Amino acid sequence: MNTDTKAKKVFFISLAASILIVGAYWYTFVKILRENIQVAALSSSIQALTKQRDVLASLSDRVKSTEDDRSKIDGYFIPRDGVVVFLNKLQSLADENGLDMAVNSVAIEDSPLSPDIFEVVDVSFTGIGEWSNVYRFVSLINLMPLKIFVDGVDLEWSSDSAASANGLVFSKKKGSATHPLWKAVVDLRVMKLK
After folding, report:
1. Measured between alpha carbons, how far is 194 from 191 in angstroms, rounded to an integer?
2. Which segments of the chain does DSSP mark as H helices, in order?
3. Quick one: which of 109, 107, 183, 187 has its CA closest to 141?
């Protein structure tokens, strides 16, 4: 019985030691598994952040390389406080082409395309002069470096030596039989930055 009890003791001690060793292995395995999961999560986060950094660096390079093009595009629109400057340019263009010009109306409204960025400036004006001057002036409006929509041009031959528009009398220009005066009422829209 002595040997049986010794054998049982050895068996139970070996069994307990084996269970302890298996438990330690299991604990170590679970801990390594958890650490691997954390490493994989951190690795994917690092990859995502690296990709995001690369995209931001690429965008920064793109912004720098397109700076000239963006400034050109901004030139296609009336600046925020540039309506008066635009009207003065129209007036000087009319003067350079031998026309008398009067602005009938100016209205500013939100652009239907992008109301948070753009406004539309509706301008109606009357120009009076010889046919060739009126034609050249209207043609040159379309060549201005702005996004201009000409909504209408109403031409009228004026037999008077002094034509009038909206109560203003244009007496600078004198018509003659060979060069009669023409009155052009032009309605246009121009995009403006907000």
Report:
1. 10
2. 2-65, 67-74, 83-96, 131-142
3. 187
52/110 same-domain check? no
Residue 176: pLDDT band (50, 70, 90) is low
Contact 94, 101 (CB under 8 A): yes
104 and 51 housed in the same domain: no
Looking at 65, 91, 116, the residue that finishes a domain is 65
User: Is this prediction's pTM over 0.85?
Assistant: no
Instruction: Retrieve residue 18's tokens.
Output: 């084996």
Residue type at 185 in one-letter notation:
V
118: left (phi over 0), alpha (psi -120 to 50) or beta: beta
Neighbours of 56 (CB within 10 A): 10
Question: Radius of gyration of the chain from Cα atoms?
Answer: 41
pLDDT band at 161 (very low <50, low <70, confident <90, very high): very low
